[in-house]
Amino acid sequence: MNLISGRTTVQGQNLDSKLSEAYFNEVATCEMSKEDMEKLNVAADEPVKVKTSYGEVIVKAKEKAGTPEGIVFIPMGPWANAVVSGDTHGAGMPSYKGIDAEIEKSSEKVLPVKELMQTYMG
Amino acid sequence: MTELLIKNGVVYDPINGVKGERKDVCIRDGKVVSEVKNPKVIDAEGRVVMPGGVDIHAHIAGGKVNSGRLFRPEDGRKGVKARTNVCRPESGYSVPNTFATGYRYAKMGYTFVMEAAMPPLAARHTHEELVDIPILDNAALPLIDNNWMTMDYVKSGDTDLLAAYVAWIIKATKGFGVKIVNPGGTEAWAWAKNCDLNDEVPYFEVTPAEIIKGLAEANEKFDMPHSIHVHTNMLGHPGNFGVTRDTYDLVKGIKPAKDRQVMHTTHTQFHSYGGTNWGDFESKADVIADYINQNDHATIDLGSIILGDTTTMTADGPMEYSLYQITGRKWTNHDVELETGSGITPFLYSGKSPVNTIQWAIGQELALLVKDPWKVALTTDHPNAGPFIGYPILISMLMSKKRRDESAEDMHKVIFDRAEYCSIDREYDLNEIAIITRGMAAKALGLHEHGKGHLGVGADGDVAIYDMSPEETDAGKIQKAFLNTKYTIKGGQVVVKDGEVVATPDGKTYFVTPECDDTLTDEMMVKLKDKFDHYYSVAFNNYAVQDAYVPNPYEIKAPWRS
Amino acid sequence: MVEVTDVVCSLCGCVCDDIVVEVEDNKVTKVKKGACAVGKSKLMGHNRIKSPAIRENGELKECSYDEAIKKAAEILAASRRPLLYGWSSTVCEADKVGIELAEEIGAVIDNTASVCHGPSVLAIQDVGLPSCTLGEVKNRADFVIYWGANPAAAHANHMKRYSYISKGYWTEEGKKAKKLVVVDVRKTATAKMADVFLQIEQGKDYLVFSALRAMLYGHEDVVPDEVGGVSKKDLLETVEMMKASKFGITFFGMGVTHTGGRHNNIVNAIQMTRAAHTHTKFSIMPMRGHYNVAGINQVCTWETGFPFAVDLSRGYGWYNPGELSATDLLIRQECDAALIIASDPGAHFPGESIKHLAKIPVIQIDPFPNPTTEFADVVIPAAVSGVESEGNVYRMDNIPIRLRKLIDSEYLPDEEIMKRILEEVRAIREKEGK
């Protein structure tokens, strides 16, 4: 699937409260079309594993009308960036959109932000 | 109490009639005094001494200047210089960073520069940059001619209310006077159109001619230090000399509030074009110079070309678009609601190009053909005709026929038939150079009454000591001397020594407070507030430049003339 | 209770400045009008970083401002390849001190444009930007495009203050007399409002810009029946609307800066604008995300000569984005210390960069705790600009507006924190004979 990340209203409302539950509920998610949810056999709010050549992350699936089949949207933030490559192709800009991703149903836990950051601390 | 004595200098102080006299200059606590008791002494050893330079027009601070820097990192890389214990890093050639701007002007002996064009809505930006320019005292001219308020009042003929608006906007922007750039044309450009002098501005039913006349009248309602400062319509178009001359005629009958011009036209080189297209393009500097010679109500600054790659930037949006269409180079445009606009595009002036050659000749011809140097200021409309760092080249050209002849040989041969350049023998002397690089500008700006441009008792202790003797005739040596002073003194403090910056005090920002009757102002405010309520995208109470942006103010009051 | 008017919002690039709030007992108690949900949220306040802190044995231990600033200065003075990053959510006055500090220690100073509109800056450096202020759009625009931007989510007041819903001098009828075109991969909330929604295949923006350009120059014959998921018929219809308009504007966002072609997408967008300009007045404007990202670009440019990713280790500005942007420096593991101010790389940088940030000493200056706080070694809480401290900011159209101070705070403003750090760094370096 084609992964993109970007802004949402609730994400923006919580720009200054990223450790809050509201932020977690909004941003640790991925939005897909109804068809893709069915193909993955996953229901709303169930965890899925998003895997790219860079990394993998567990987020909650959400159905979002208007999302084309084949596109998965993760709001910008630590969960999206766990699978975003740092390669800027010499332009200084990482690849936040247009990333090849594999999505599958998962039983693993969606990490709260503090625990997610811990995974970087080696 | 700090005292400084500059002795053994040959002083050129044209405002006070000093034309190359060996005399002392005494400074105490930053001001020129008649004598000192226990000074630090600088022995000028027979060198040329002048008051600090006063530049009447350069684009050094604000939105379009910074757009120029931002989109030309290639220019930024040209002038890099590492920081020192005294100086911050430098960058840029035609669009130097603010630090380089201050240091390079100071090294040329300049101590005051007028920012040529400040869009009122973005005045805070201009002031932020002015504050970041070290050493130089400064001021900025707010653009008032494409403003909707201006055009409304010009249409209704309410000169007093127009004056009230002019007063308000100069105060709100902490500006120095009335700047006019392609009047009406820049508003038309917001619809991708332009205006000639007598065309009606789309939707506003006034002509540029009416705008210019209206603003000239409004300006003279106050004891304004400066006249209106005008970039006339049709800049850069072959045949535009007629528009320039007609523009001068517009204000001929208006009496100035003070002993000065009624109109200052700027970078007049760009407005002295003959021919009908780029093919038969020729110089009409002689016609414009003739006009200036026969009339006393207008002054000019040159806008003289420096060969090489530079960055053009003006509030003449349509002109910048045409330039981009000619060269195909990068182009930035920024229209400003209810007020003005700007365009920025790089440009190369080449001695191989017949058009550039004639342009190059015109700027110098104007200086050589206008008889009275008190009507001429030396500028390059930095950076439009070239960077200010090129001033010493122009000085050496005006002083040396030999150099002009040598340079003409490297230019395109059209210089022999489409310009008078090669037949002019006149050579400027140092007194005249002093006039066109400080004396005239100080008088035209009214700053001679505030300590600038001269070395009489009470003047600011701003002095340039050039490393040359008054007898020097070698153009190369003259150019070198005017590029890096032996000493530049600002407010009695040595800031440049042996061509290096040794101190970087903060400069002051000069602004004018026109004093307008409350009743008039209140009436004008009703209309103005309506514009803010409905059309501006910024709130009225957030518009005026707050005091925090001008930490070193120098206020000049301009009372209403009864 | 005091009502304060003309309050300026310090959140997104809209910098709305007609907000009315109520202040009581040194607190903003109500936002009465003018602010969107996101701005309101900022004005009303959030959970703050309670105290300066220094990390010891993995845990943040509270300390005084003096101690935190001293520790920060020690880290920076000892660093051989420091990065000073962020700057987009603070005021210009603080930015200036940051640049002075960068000069003092030879740091790389970069800002969030690097991961936002940096590609737009690169495009502007190629071809320039034909643009205008937001009031021009309000008064004149009868044709508005949002391309790869979703203002309904990210700039909620944009359409009603400046573009589609707004009313101005020649646009008194508001949206009734305007056309809105939205180009996006997904049918966003903004797309739902559009007269024409061009649903584009992800990553194909460059092609669609090219197709529109060809049509605007009269070469529709070279355009295939479908480009990037959009039908030729739809494209032709859009072009006819562009040509028939009196004033058109394209607002663009991360949809174009983040994908494949990066700055090449923007170059093409700008060239499309120029093609449209041969028919009618057409302008283009990037939707700057943060309230003062335009400001740090401005200050950095007039002080160093370059807008972002500036390396001052040579004593003068050295500019090479793609080599010296924060992400690249971190991926190459080149910096050995970082000062993060008014930004949150912990949340917004790719994981690989965060891995390196977590390893090196990091100083965070921010009012609010966020993912960066989780690995910061020195945490310095700041006053909220626009609420607890004033200063200058640049709106997305580069118009400077002054933020107001509404309440007092025990937290230090960014400018003050930076000044103290700089002073301390200078003292350390002087002792070391530098």
Explain the layout of strands and helices.
The complex is a heterotrimer of chains A (122), B (562) and C (434).
Chain A: E1 2-6, H1 9-13, H2 21-27, E2 29-32, H3 34-40, E3 47-51, E4 56-63, E5 71-75, H4 78-81, E6 97-100, E7 102-105, H5 113-118
Chain B: E1 3-13, E2 18-28, E3 31-33, E4 40-43, E5 48-51, E6 53-58, H1 63-70, H2 73-76, H3 98-107, E7 110-118, H4 123-131, E8 137-142, H5 148-156, H6 159-172, E9 179-181, H7 185-189, H8 208-219, E10 228-231, H9 241-250, E11 263-265, E12 273-274, E13 282-283, H10 285-294, E14 298-301, E15 308-314, H11 317-327, E16 332-335, E17 343-349, H12 354-369, E18 376-377, H13 391-399, H14 401-409, H15 430-444, E19 463-466, H16 475-483, E20 487-490, E21 493-497, E22 500-501, E23 509-514, H17 518-534, E24 553-558
Parallel strand pairs in B: 1-4, 1-5, 6-7, 7-8, 9-10, 10-11, 11-14, 14-18, 23-24
Antiparallel strand pairs in B: 1-2, 2-3, 5-19, 12-13, 15-17, 16-17, 19-20, 20-21, 21-22
Chain C: E1 2-7, E2 19-24, E3 27-33, H1 37-44, E4 53-56, E5 59-62, H2 65-78, E6 82-86, H3 92-105, E7 108-111, H4 118-127, E8 130-132, H5 134-140, E9 143-147, H6 151-154, H7 158-161, E10 179-184, H8 189-193, E11 196-199, H9 205-216, E12 226-227, E13 230-231, H10 232-244, E14 247-252, H11 254-257, H12 263-277, E15 281-286, H13 293-304, E16 310-311, E17 318-319, H14 326-331, E18 337-341, H15 345-348, H16 351-359, E19 362-366, E20 378-381, E21 391-394, E22 400-403, H17 414-431
Helix pairs in contact in C: 2-17, 3-13, 3-17, 4-12, 9-10, 9-12
